[in-house]
Amino acid sequence: MGMTMTQKIIAAHCGKEIVTAGEFVEMNLDIVLGNDITTPVAINEFNKMGASEVFDKNKIVIVLDHFTPNKDIKSAQQCKISREFAKEKEIKNFFDVGQMGIEHALLPEKGLVVSGDTVIGADSHTCTYGALGAFSTGVGSTDMAGGMALGTTWIKVPEAIKINVIGKKKPFVSGKDLILHLIGKIGVDGATYKSIEFTGSGIKNLSMDDRFSISNMAVEAGGKNGIFPVDDKTIKYMEERKIKDWSIFEADEDALYDEEITINLDELNPTVAFPSSPENTKDIEDIGVIKIDQVMIGSCTNGRIEDMRAAAQILKGKKVADGVRTIIIPATQEVYKQCIKEGILEIFIDAGAVISTPTCGPCLGGHMGILASGEKAVTTTNRNFVGRMGHKESEVYLASPAVAAASAVTGKIQNPNKI
Amino acid sequence: MNTIGKAFKFGDNIDTDLIIPARYLNSTDPKELAMYCMQDIDEEFTDKISEGDIIVGGKNFGCGSSREHAPLAIKGAGISCVIAKSYARIFYRNSFNIGLPILESEEASEKISQGDEIQVDFTKGIIKNITKKEEYKADKFPEFIQSIIKYNGLVGYVKNKLEQGDYNDL
Ligand code: SF4
Known about the structure:
The complex is a heterodimer.
Chain A: H1 5-12, E1 24-28, E2 31-35, H2 38-48, E3 60-63, H3 73-88, E4 93-95, H4 103-109, E5 118-121, E6 135-138, H5 141-150, E7 152-156, E8 160-166, H6 175-186, E9 195-199, H7 208-216, E10 225-227, H8 232-239, E11 259-264, E12 271-273, E13 281-283, E14 294-297, H9 299-302, H10 305-315, E15 325-328, H11 333-341, H12 344-351, E16 354-355, E17 376-379, E18 395-398, H13 401-410
Parallel strand pairs in A: 2-3, 2-5, 3-4, 5-6, 8-9, 8-11, 9-10, 14-15, 14-17, 15-16, 17-18
Antiparallel strand pairs in A: 1-7, 12-13
Helix pairs in contact in A: 2-5, 6-7, 10-12, 10-13
Chain B: E1 2-9, H1 16-19, H2 30-34, H3 45-48, E2 54-56, H4 69-76, E3 81-84, H5 89-98, E4 102-104, H6 106-111, E5 117-121, E6 126-129, E7 134-137, H7 143-150, H8 154-164
Parallel strand pairs in B: 1-2, 2-3, 3-4
Antiparallel strand pairs in B: 1-5, 5-6, 6-7
Bound molecules: iron/sulfur cluster.
């Protein structure tokens, strides 16, 4: 019996010819990641482990992205702990205000993760790098500490679900719509403990930024990871940022999958997840009138350059509706700069939106756009749980940048094809 | 190892934002986190519970973010164990790694009512409902997890490895 793509990467990182689903192995790690919330906890545990040095100072990445630039004294203290640790341990890839971006947009952009890598990150959306053909998964802070100390982690070899993508996207349909549609179909626990492996003739019609949003939200279906095969687009993306070599793994033809689902891009419409679960999805045609108070475009799901372009295409020459606070956050400094070059920021400002320096900020109800009770927001983030973006009686609707921008213009959840 | 406590029941898909809202993540102190545990689902939760009480959840307990603050808040509040139908995978990892015992049992999750007095025997994987005079079986921990439990969590496990210097042959 063959192995899935994920199983092959794991096998290659634990010195085994074959691994089987359900088996526990200790796997070597290429990257161990943490952010300003999870790293201080990890440092604490690292010290308790009696570790003095990190296993490899080139393979640890720390990004201060959640509550930065610091929103209050407590978060300033947290960042200070990470900063001092990074300095003391000579961690090469430490990203502070000025260099930082949202971690899952930043690492691929800097070439720090490539196909064939194994990555654990003390952040659930670490699964984003599956877009590059890497095995990456979110863990807790103690796992991060163990990873920093040993360069290995324990992992239960996952079973897999196969998603066969066919067809071509219609206008204003993006990777975000695909993943929302899939979560709506299989539910927030539809892939618990499992890999989601994407394949099929439609993959070539998905850009890298589409794939990043898709892999990003694998965890919202409970998945351990969400992985794409490596193709010309992946290789071009990695070549442009090359700082290390990559390896390419493919699923065996006789690999075993628990379930197979086909998604036809030809039939996919813009999709919105209603409060308070990412599985509460509706086709944009079936939504009715929902008035909104705020729009947020950004996050590790949709803060990349294509997302900014999609929003700009809609906002160009238009004004946001009265009373709709529109907050746009490019995910990294590079995306921000590219937006300046392309005149995108000017379009946003002319439309009446505000632009923030890269930060997670409002995505987790941290700062830069918290919701009051009774308020409704359309956002391009990945979670719409109760209280996620502010007051527990506020409502979060998840959508693509095109839908979010169109909604900003009309003041209600809007089909971008009808504006 | 045994524990006795009152059951506090919750439904399916209890996410980490409900367990500990992100607005409190600027602290890592379990006692401080504990003050806000479950606040958005039951404001009085932390006033109602006593040391040793038990949380009983439905399926996919602990879904959402990777924050270890979630099991830490539960442990810090004095909850001795969580019983649920199933767990989100990062929460599952985190709980063992920080030493919060969690058990998977569909039967217990369904049959236990709010306020029942529950006794848990971790070594045997047996859950006793003293109020209802019933007994349920929980899934046993896999062998690998048992070795982490043996060292009181991942910290002890790694510490031992570092002391033995045997991590090269993993
Ligand atoms: S943007 Fe949101 S989901 Fe992404 S890492 Fe930041 S807080 Fe997490």
